Amino acid sequence: MLARIPADVSKRIILSLCAAALMGAACTTLPVATVTYGQGTQFIPSVADNLDNVGLGSAVAIDKDGVPYVSYLGFTEAPKKDAIPIPRPLLNPGVPAVLITSVKSSVWTRGAAAVAQPAVAGIVWPYTPATVKQLSGILPSNTNGTDIVIGADGAPHAVWTGPDGVWETDAGAAGAPTVASQVFAVNPGLSQAGPLGRPSIALDAAGVPWVAFATTTSGVGNVDVATPGKHGWDVTTVATFTLCGGCAQPGATQVLETPDGLEVAYVDPSAGVMVAHQPPAGTAPGAPWLTDTVAAKVAGVGLDAAIAKDGTTYLSYYTGKGTVELASGTSGAWSTAKVAAVTDPDPGAAGNAVWTTGAAVDDTGAVSVTWYDDATRSVMLASGASATALAPVQTPGTLGGTNPALGVSPDGSTTFLSWYDVSTTSLLVGVLGSANGVEIAAPSPTPTAVAVQPTVAACTSSGTTLKISALNVAFDKNCLAATAGKPFKIVFDNKDAGIPHNVSVYDGTTALYPPETPQAGPSVVTYNVPALNAGTYKFQCDVHPTTMFGTFIVAK
């Protein structure tokens, strides 16, 4: 379904477009440096999906044209006490589901890879999702993330774990139904996701899908890869490990197509971060996969991987020693570099799904890493020309975000960062790139108003304390005024329950003071604004800039 089609009158179906300054130092121990990443000049966060409880376990894939696709899990959200349940529009795939969203030419397309219930007759959901009845039993507690890859034909392939095992979907030609199949079965079903690690998917040179995942039974772990065979999926165990007391359950695995064949990155709790390599062509059938130790005696929580055009593999993870680390190399030759100092996740604690990292590399070899930072309760990002030259990038709007994932366009011009917002149970996607080159979706449904500098309205200064409120996604004033050369306060009363708003003052596209973080209503906040020079400016809500704006006059 396209974002240009009105889907519901519910207040929750308001998609945001927030613009903010990009460069500077993040709250880590990384060196402060000027980041030059393609033409990156802005980080723009946007709410990609906010119906029900959506966004957990997200993954990002970029097609050959630089278009991002995000896979994520969607769950039914129980209404709060005394609240009226919000109906899900027929044009939106129902939940529970494995959802897919993408943005191109400033339009969001929201569909699914698989749904528990098929669409109503006459309704066609994007990506023609497969119907997998077993999805009706998924919960945040018994699922363990998704992964997605885009084929040369532009078709998405997705994978996820549920209480009954690992599933994969192959999208067919445009309009053709997606086909779902169970890669690995768990019987009896799982009440908690722990014994089945987060899966990953890659396509080999012939476009054949390969799925990797880890499992444990009675303390013994297997790292498996699976590919379609004559009678279902052929599963091969490429490595084994033993769980230790207090160690985490199986972590994520990452399968990659390299110039030398497939490799699978995984975590051995007693050894560290490992990589298993597919036997060379011509090796006798059944030959064991060869393994490398990438980083010894590290926790490896949140493992993610990316492959560079020259065949270099990059692995990001929490070390369990107070740092996020980035490893890079090829078979038998690995090096590691510290990315940031962090609070360590507790390997044995529940809820470690929030502790994900993400790695991405463009065709020039420039690298980006993302991670969840527990000290600031936000998502962090660093990028640079190499693994040892990373510098922090500010990510405004990620406060309260967890579970990040990352992708970068082949030419390096645009980075896409997805995360789960805990307070709103929504999927957010941030775009880092040129202010002139970033394509990001407008609010949905797209309003008819045009975001231009508002005409000068007639209002005069009301002293050093200005008051404004928001209700029904609209300000109660279209003009505010202050006295030049004097600091002032803006008292903002957001009366829209559950909808985030803020008030920012701009000179053209430049914020005259750091924009305040949007707060969901009902809430009253006071902004302390420094003295401004005389002139005519504009004010706006950064979440709804095309519909909530006005004139800001500063006079002598």
Core attributes:
single chain; 556 residues; mainly beta; Neuraminidase; Immunoglobulin-like; 2 domains; 5-stranded mixed sheet; globular; disordered N terminus
Could you walk me through the main structural features you see in this protein, from its secondary elements to its overall organization?
The protein is mostly beta strands and 556 residues long. The protein has 2 domains: 392 residues, Neuraminidase (6 Propeller), CATH 2.120.10; 91 residues, Immunoglobulin-like. The strands form 10 sheets. Strands 2-3-4-5-6 form a 5-stranded mixed beta sheet, with no helix packed on it. A 5-stranded mixed beta sheet has the order 31-39-38-34-35, with no helix packed on it. Strands 1-29-28-27 form a 4-stranded antiparallel beta sheet, with no helix packed on it. It is globular. The N terminus is likely disordered.
Spell out the blueprint of helices and strands:
Blueprint: E1 42-49, E2 53-62, E3 68-75, E4 97-104, E5 107-115, E6 130-131, E7 146-150, E8 156-162, E9 165-170, E10 179-185, E11 200-203, E12 209-217, E13 220-229, E14 232-242, E15 254-258, E16 261-268, E17 272-277, E18 290-296, E19 301-307, E20 313-318, E21 323-330, E22 333-341, E23 357-361, E24 367-373, E25 378-384, E26 391-393, E27 401-408, E28 414-421, E29 426-433, E30 465-470, E31 479-483, E32 488-494, E33 500-501, E34 504-507, E35 510-511, E36 519-520, E37 523-529, E38 535-540, E39 549-555
Parallel strand pairs: 5-6, 30-32, 31-39
Antiparallel strand pairs: 1-29, 2-3, 3-4, 4-5, 7-8, 8-9, 9-10, 11-12, 12-13, 13-14, 15-16, 16-17, 17-18, 19-20, 20-21, 21-22, 23-24, 24-25, 25-26, 27-28, 28-29, 32-37, 33-36, 34-35, 34-38, 38-39
